[in-house]
Hints:
The protein is an alpha/beta fold.
Amino acid sequence: MRCSTTNETKRMIWTLDPQRWLLAGALTSSYALVCLLPYLRARRVRHARAARAASAGDAAPWIVAYASQTGQAEQLAHQTADTLHLAGVPVRLVELSELTPQDWQTAGRMLLLVSTYGEGDAPDAAAGFARRVLGAAMPQLSQLHYGLLALGDASYREFCGFGRTLDQWLQAQGAQALFPRIEVDRAAPAAIAAWRQQLSHLAGTSDAPDWEAPAFQDWRLVGRQLLNPGSAGGALYQVELLPQSAPLPVWQSGDLVQVAAPSDPDRAREYSIASIPAEGRVQLLVRLQQHADGTLGAASGWLTQQAPVGSLISLRWRPHRRFRLEDNAQRPLILIGNGSGIAGLRAHLKARALAGQRRNWLLFGERHAAHDYHYREELAAWQQAGLLPRLDLAFSRDQPQRIYVQDRVRGNADELREWVEQGAALYVCGSLEGMAAGVDRALEDVLGRAVLDQLAAQGRYRRDVY
Length: 466
């Protein structure tokens, strides 16, 4: 996960070269198109929901509810609703957190598609629902027949933990399963095909939209640089890629790529994109992973050590709607992260700088300033230009007492509350163990859990942690 550390200050001192002005206009137009896409998508979703509601007539609609972290459960929920709609079944598509007690007590048919985040946690937008509903008894739901698709990653101990907890809660309330819970390990095609088969049986149709994920394409590795020589942490590389033949996709800051390594092509690894389309290439920050037996991580070893510069990489772009700016594009932005998590945050800052958005605050942590201060020159240039008025750094090993990014959160509690009261959105990117949990606890101390849950439900508290 990474991007380049070019000298932004030099770029600001442009002459009146007509070609430079033409390039500036092209980049601005490109960014304007990127900003327009969320509006067009939201309008398309509203129209689709209205069409589904109109098809319901007086019949009670099936409820399709989802809880998604990176967007996969949401995408599958839309496909599920489309399949029911095409079969003539009235359907209502909602986020799990939007369901009211009355919905639960009156619904006859419900299909639930839920992801698990980390070690058994609910996705951020459903965290409030999990605390409010799953820990409490509800009047018997014997009228409810449901199907459940649980998405997760079998490398975690609590594989599909949230989906399993939800399933157990439904059974405890007397709800009746239409078929056994289907569990999906890292988007396994066989499990998703099993869901489609059950759905076709329930809807009485096999005429369903195409659910195939986009194919991997050949991208060329055009650049690689070790960013932290001498660091006490793992080697961190900047990796740059271009499509071999297809046009450069128009992604948004916050999006991901998936890399299929030759040694393990069935288990694609995801990396945050650190660049924006106006920069002309996908840039990643990749931390080299090394196992206890000395072997290298399949994808990180391939990208940083084994694949020669100039070789082809099997890659596909994936929208990450839960970490995009979208409705937060005009809000003040508080960005919090550590390590290679600076990649996703840097992309947001780059997009904000291009749009002239100045209410930006970055809180970032790493080990040593001498080796691990990623994007030092770029951040300094943004500060000088007034595009990054707040920058708080925590280099944990530069002093006897360890200081982490969550300590910076607590140390700036008054300012953080003020920004949130003024409408700021919070974006957290970095390691799941340690940083993400520590930052979440610090934010709870500063804002309160009820406020934090509300921000998550509003899309103003978003996390991309791994």
